[in-house]
Structure formats: C-alpha cells, structure tokens
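README: folding subset

This subset contains proteins for which both the sequence and a predicted structure token string are available. Records are stored as plain text. Below is the entry for Acetylajmalan esterase-like (281 residues), shown exactly as it appears on disk.
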Amino acid sequence: MFDAIYQLGDSISDTGNLIRENPNTPFSHLPYGQSFFNNPTGRCSNGLLMLDFLALDAGLPLVSPYLNKDALTNHGVNFAVAGSTALPSQYLSTKKILSPVTNSSLDHQLDWMFTHFNSICHNQRDCNEKLRNALFLVGEIGGNDYNYALFQGKTIQEVKDMVPNVVQTIKSAVEKVISYGATRVIVPGNFPVGCFPIYLTGFQINDTSAYDELHCLKALNSLASYHNDQIKQAIEELKKENPHTIIVYGDYYNAFLWILRHVFVLGFDEASLLKSCCGIG
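--- output ---
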C-alpha cells in the first residue's frame, strides 16, 4: 500500500489549482462540486475524480492542490492544472496552437514538484526515504495538446505528427519524478476521444463509415490509440532503464470503452445516453 499520492496532469485530476490561478473559471461555480462537496472545489466534475477514489481506497485524505498553501501535504500533493498541456505553451504557440486556459504545462508542474520536495527533504537520501511508499501519477496529460490543435483547425495528420514530441515530454517527466525519488509510477494513456460528446458534435460527419459500432469517430480513436501505443513503448524503455522502479500503464482508453459498452447495466437509459454520450445534445 502507498502512504502518499503525487499527481501531475490536467482537468482529469485537478482538485483546485486552476481556480486558484484564475478564480473566474467556470469550475469555480455550481454545478461543479454539487454532488459530493455541495460547493465548487475546482474539480471539473459535479463529484469526485479518479484521484479522489484512489485516495479513498488507500485510506488517505483527498489530495490537496499545490496552490492551496494552507493544505496539509503529509499524504501527497496535486500539481495537476485543468487545461494544461504536456508541451510548453510557448512551444505550442510556435506551431500556431494557443493554450487558452493555463500556462502551467507539465514542465511548470515539475518545477512546483521540485520546489515542494526541496522544502520537505533535507537531501536526496531523505527524499528517497520519504517517497519510498508514495504513488506518482504522471497524467493523464497530452490530451489538451491534441484538443487545442484539432479545435483550432489542425488536421488529424498534423496532430499525429505531434505525438512523438508529446510522448517524449511525458517520458522525460517520468524520468524526472524517478530522479526525485519515485519508486511507483502510473502513466495513464489517452481516452477514446472519438466517443466524447464535444468531438462528436464538433466533428459530426454524414458518412456512416466514419463511425464504429459504438457511434464513435474512428479516426479520432485511432489518434488516441497511436498516442497510447507510443506511451506503452516509452514505459517499456523506462522499465529497462529503471529496473528498481515499478512503472505501469493506466489504461483509461479501455476503461472508458467498458463503461460505454455497459451503459444500460450502469443505469443510463437510452434518452440520457443519446443526450450525454452521442454528441447530439
């Protein structure tokens, strides 16, 4: 079992960093947070995030955002920022891709992490001891690099060309957290974004062959799979280079598809499914 969780990532795992950077973001208002906390906490959800369920399952307190300076940090810190990218926003802007939500990309979050460990560790040996039983999550991150590019008019091929750079950036981040003292790391992949309402609405097409049996856009899911295959390859390389570190792939892609295939068993009816899952709402 682990005794602390350290998270890097985006809106999938932000528990309140973005709303401290920018109090005017929609996530600082209801309905965000209404189902569990009864008030908005900065989570991009009406309830709990995957990170919260992990913490609860491990018997740990919910992981506090780094920018909440009053929070206890004995059981980990969350550096994730909603809207963040893997690649630095300055680099994306050279490719004419704007990062409209935050400049706190993965390198920025790693700087925060370094500052935090500098403040709690006397030296590397002390850090190794403190982090020996901690769990690190590096992502999910990179999804927004592709989201912004696609919605700003880049083609799927242009976005596919970004993948090796995004994956290399994530791999470098894993190497960095290992150098800080991480011994257990999860590196999640991307979701099947071709099943997401925002994509199904934004990239709707009259060609039925563009969709799979779950009414998801095949080309977008192929892009996500391409990213995930490269992430898995990077993990294999990292495992060879770091034989004493446990590094595992977080398969968000197939977990999401499992839910989509079992929607009726999970209590969704056809009307709500069409409205919320199929991009016609």
